[in-house]
Each structure stands twice: as structure tokens, then as C-alpha cells.
Design a protein that fits this description.
By secondary structure, the chain is mainly alpha-helical. The protein is built from 14 helices and 4 strands. It folds into 2 domains: about 240 residues, no CATH class; about 100 residues, abc type-2 transporter like fold, CATH 3.40.1710.10.
Length: about 375
């Protein structure tokens, strides 16, 4: 334990003494989390829209007035030619055109037709915005014809109730997903880079002639990375996620931090394994790219695990990131306690032991070959 303590101190001095590494850690847990959480998501925001109203009826003016921020910018009145040219220049995303007889046809009980043009170079926003505008046109027309803001009640109505995120704010989920991404990337990269740094600087030979075991050397690198990244995670959770982004944590914050520590153990073991496999920093960088992309994409942060193919779902059971994201969502959003999330904690710890054992076996072999 004394040897591990001093080796951890050496690793901490090495990491914290590197200004570039400190800047990378601060960027990852402050700026990167904020940018990823508040960036473009699955909602329409501040979309530029033009309205071509050839009838100027009360109905069309009512529909135009319903196109409001934060989903849309203030609608700009244009002619058809102006709207087409503005869309060609990329100045507007949507152009909603009403013919002269739109309101008259609606009052007469006919099926009025309005034209919506969308700039589909932004595919997601174009699709979502078209749905928004269609719903707005239908609801405002129904309210206008019925003479009541509520409109006629259909015989069958679907009522949507959101659990745990009543306003449907995507920042809540994306902030936690971003924290997972930064935890994975930094932990794997720092642990593997620490191992390669010893080899490239030739200090691994110094460690080999000292009265140290491979377990002590490996544990020191894993624990040092865990300490640095966990401190950064706690700061980001308190000051960025809860402070700046205003994401509430429904459950126990200490439990969330404890789960992050368990995940860090597993991620650091993966980094140790990659750092032992690689023979140069270039090889390690390629291995990190090959590993970190599946870790992030298949964890459930970019899409539901249930939507993946059956075979892929089974493979993701070996990814600690999948279990950590399920754990974090349960604690942060649903207020789950230890009695609910202990299986995820156990699986993450077990995967960490398996990856560490594999990396330790390779490390022993590499040290014996070097000797």
C-alpha cells in the first residue's frame, strides 16, 4: 500500500504538471459538457421562417402570430419570389405560403391548401419544423373556425404526459450523456497515455529494477487517473450541470458520484489494457478511436439501446458505459436508490476487474519480455 501511495503521487504530479493536460481536463468537463448539452438537439429552435400571405385574412394572420420564439424567429412577410430567393441564399429555413382563398375555403368547409417549403440541408430541423408548423396551422384553424381557443374536442384524444422531464428539455438528458462521454474519453486516454509515457521515456526500466510488483505499478496508474477525473467530474456536476445548465438531480448526488467512481475503475482498466497493447502513441491513438466510438455510440446516449439490433444489444452488455448511463439516468432523473441500481454497480465493478486482470496479464508479459 505504501508503494502504491507514492506511485500514485508520482502519477498525479506528472498529470497536473502538464499544462496541456490540465487544459484538456478543464475543457472536457466545462466547455465540452456545456456545448454538447445546449447544442442543436431534437427540437426546433430559432428557425427563420417567411410567410407569403396572398389573402391577408384574419385566419392567416392568426396562424402567423402563432409562429413564435423560441421555436421560430419572428416571421418575415415576403412575396413568393422573395421567399424563393431568400431560401436559395440560405437566409430562411421555412416559407409558408397561403393562397388568396385559403380562409374562404376553410369557412366554407372545403379542404384549404397551404404550401410549406423547407430547406432540407438541415435534415433533422427541416423534418421537425415541418411537423411543428403543420400542427400549428391545424390547431389555429380549428380554433378560428370553432370560435374558441380550445376548439372542438374530438371523440378520441391522445394526452401526452412526460415523466421525470415534464418540459421535455433535451439539455437534461444530454448533459448526463455528455458527462459519460467525457468520463470515457479522458479516463481511457489518460490511463493508456501514462503507461506509454513510461515506455517512451524509458522510465519503465527504472520501475522494473525497483522492489515493485506489476500490480502496484498498474494500480497506481489506474488510481491516479481515477482521482483526477473524479475530482473534475464532481466539479462539473456541481458547477456546470447543476449550476450553469440548471439540470436537477432527483436522487442522491453522493450515490451518483460513487457510481461514477465505479465506472472510472472499469474505464481506467480499459485504458490500461489499450496502453499495454499499443507500442507507440500513434498506435494507442488509433486504438482509442476504435474503442471510444462504440463506447459512446452504443451506450444509449445517442439512441436507445432497445432500438439497436439484437446482436448489438448483447454485445453492449460488455460495455461499462451502457450500465453507467442506465445507472446515472435512474439516479439523476428517477431518484432511484441503491436498492434499485446495485446490479449496474456490480456489473461495472465486475467488468473493471475483468479488464484489469487482462491488462495486468499483458503488462506482466511485456515486463518479462523487456527484462
Amino acid at each position: 500500500m505504501e508503494n502504491i501511495f507514492w506511485l500514485v503521487g508520482k502519477e498525479l504530479k506528472s498529470v497536473l504538471g502538464d499544462p496541456v493536460m490540465v487544459i484538456l481536463i478543464l475543457w472536457s468537463f466545462v466547455a465540452a459538457v456545456m456545448l454538447e448539452a445546449s447544442g442543436a438537439g431534437d427540437t426546433v429552435r430559432n428557425a427563420a421562417i417567411a410567410v407569403v400571405d396572398e389573402g391577408r385574412s384574419p385566419l392567416t394572420r392568426q396562424i402567423e402570430a402563432a409562429l413564435i420564439p423560441p421555436w421560430f424567429q419572428v416571421p418575415v412577410a415576403m412575396t413568393a419570389d422573395q421567399a424563393g430567393a431568400a431560401m436559395d441564399r440560405g437566409e430562411i429555413m421555412f416559407a409558408l405560403a397561403f393562397p388568396p382563398d385559403f380562409a374562404a375555403d376553410a369557412i366554407a368547409g372545403k379542404s384549404p391548401v397551404a404550401q410549406l417549403l423547407a430547406d432540407a440541408t438541415a435534415v433533422s430541423q427541416a423534418q421537425l419544423g415541418a411537423d411543428y408548423i403543420r400542427n400549428i396551422v391545424q390547431s389555429e384553424a380549428r380554433a378560428f373556425l370553432a370560435g374558441s381557443p380550445d376548439g372542438p374536442t374530438p371523440q378520441l384524444r391522445l394526452e401526452l404526459r412526460r415523466a421525470f422531464n415534464p418540459n421535455g428539455n433535451p439539455v437534461w438528458f444530454k448533459a448526463m450523456s455528455s458527462l459519460l462521454n467525457q468520463l470515457s474519453l479522458l479516463t481511457i486516454a489518460l490511463t493508456g497515455a501514462a503507461m506509454l509515457r513510461e515506455r517512451e521515456h524509458g522510465t519503465i526500466e527504472h520501475l522494473m529494477v525497483m522492489p515493485l510488483t506489476p500490480v502496484e505499478v498498474a494500480l497506481s496508474k489506474v488510481l491516479a487517473t481515477m482521482v483526477v477525473v473524479l475530482v473534475a467530474f464532481i466539479g462539473s456536476l456541481l458547477f456546470v450541470v447543476q449550476g450553469v445548465l440548471q439540470v436537477p438531480v432527483a436522487g442522491s448526488a453522493p450515490l451518483l458520484v460513487a457510481g461514477a467512481a465505479v465506472y472510472l475503475w472499469a474505464a481506467a482498466a480499459i485504458g490500461m489494457l489499450l496502453g499495454t497493447l499499443a507500442r507507440s502513441m500513434a498506435q494507442f491513438a488509433l486504438l482509442v478511436i476504435m474503442v471510444i466510438i462504440p463506447v459512446i455510440m452504443l451506450s444509449g446516449g445517442m439512441g436507445a439501446v432497445e432500438s439497436q439490433p439484437d446482436l448489438v444489444q448483447k454485445l453492449t452488455l460488455a460495455l461499462p458505459s451502457r450500465h453507467f448511463l442506465a445507472f446515472a439516468k435512474a439516479v439523476a432523473f428517477r431518484g432511484a436508490g441503491i436498492s434499485t441500481v446495485w446490479p449496474q454497480l456490480l456489473v461495472m465493478a465486475g467488468l473493471g476487474v475483468a479488464f484489469f486482470a487482462a491488462s495486468l496479464a499483458l503488462f506482466r508479459r511485456s515486463m518479462s519480455l523487456s527484462g
